[in-house]
Amino acid sequence: MVAVTQPAAPSAAPDDLDDAAPPYPLLSRGKVRSLYDLGDGTLAMVASDRISAYDVVLDTTIPDKGAMLTQLSLWWFDQLADLAPNHVVSALPPPGAPASWAGRTMVVRRLDMVGVECVARGWLTAGGLASYRETGSICGIELPPGLTEASRLPEPLFTPTTKAAVGDHDEPMTYGEVARLVGPELAASLRELTLAVYSRAAETAAQRGILLADTKIEIGRDTDGTLVLADELLTPDSSRFWPADGWAPGRVQPSFDKQYVRNWLTSPASGWDRGSDAPPPPLPEEVVARTRDRYVQAYERLTGSAWTAR
Ligand code: PZK
């Protein structure tokens, strides 16, 4: 068992989860989600309405974001149930949970988590692009010359990374490094499952006008070693979704969910200096409303169901 350190709460962030103290011990806290130990071999994963941009958690929350991402994960777990089992035990908050947890909570089986971040990419951007520009390869996989920002890759790639502590950046690993870390059999299974999840999800998203540029999935093992899909799955926080219309290689694609936030934060109107240590200013109401609408659209386009706040 690895020691779990609790990062400090984002400074002065309105904490939409802590309006009532939950009657469970906190096991782990991420930038925008918390994990509680229910003590019976299950955990409660609670998604907040907090949003991060440019690696910082903002002071402004996006109403219903946590519930939308939780419901989207649950939908994907169902869609992919034939590929692998998942960790979901219940979509209802556990007994005694604060009322604010409704809709944003999943009770999950406690698993032995694999110590590798399983990433799949179908399009080239961000860290993958930086690696390609430096070395012509990603995670040791040689790529053809001539690729650029947002290029479609010749085929989806398994591009695993190390699991860094909160606030640190994950480092790319070669497949050989994964095999040395977890053993060749598990490495092969991780690659196979990651690519199967990515391919199915990318196909589903494409039918709905959304490109799934990349995604990070978390895999655990149950007591008999069966691989189980865990964490959040195929949400805008774990994946890059791009609007398919208007996609063109050679320029940075607008983010499906965070583009209004990024545009405003980097505009003169925000007065924020990204390079400084200063926290970003609160988002204007209109940016919040538009961003919320993008999460609603992502939920509705992917699932084909209307978002009704719960
Ligand atoms: C687990 N995280 C990431 C950190 C979060 C999530 N089913 C599981 N069993 C054991 N451990 C985990 C899971 C899952 N999922 C997931 N860390 C451990 C994480 C912080 C907050 F919501």
Which features characterize this protein?
310 residues, 15 strands, 27% helix, 6 helices, globular, alpha+beta, five-stranded antiparallel beta sheet, six-stranded antiparallel beta sheet, 24% strand, binds ligand PZK
The ordered string of helix (H) and strand (E) elements is EEEEEHEEEEHEEEHHEEEHH
Q: Compute the number of strand runs.
A: 15
Number of helical segments?
6
Helix content percent band: 25-40%
Strand content: 15-25%
Q: How is the secondary structure organized here?
A:
Layout: E1 26-29, E2 33-37, E3 42-47, E4 50-53, E5 56-61, H1 65-79, E6 88-90, E7 105-109, E8 112-113, E9 118-123, H2 126-135, E10 137-138, E11 141-142, E12 152-158, H3 175-182, H4 184-207, E13 210-221, E14 227-230, E15 239-243, H5 259-265, H6 285-303
Antiparallel strand pairs: 1-2, 2-3, 3-7, 4-5, 6-7, 8-13, 9-12, 9-13, 10-11, 13-14, 13-15
Ligand PZK is lined by residues 28-30, 33-35, 43, 45, 87, 108-111, 113, 218, 220, 230-231.
What does this molecule look like?
The protein starts with 25 loop residues before the first strand and ends in a 7-residue tail after the last helix. By secondary structure, it is of the alpha+beta class. It has six helices and 15 strands. The strands form four sheets. Strands 8, 9, 12, 13, 14 and 15 form a six-stranded antiparallel beta sheet that branches. Strands 1-2-3-7-6 form a five-stranded antiparallel beta sheet. A two-stranded antiparallel ribbon has the order 4-5. The protein is globular, with a radius of gyration of 19 Å. The protein is 27% helix and 24% strand. Helix 3 crosses helix 4 (184-207). Ligand PZK is lined by residues 28-30, 33-35, 43, 45, 87, 108-111, 113, 218, 220, 230-231.
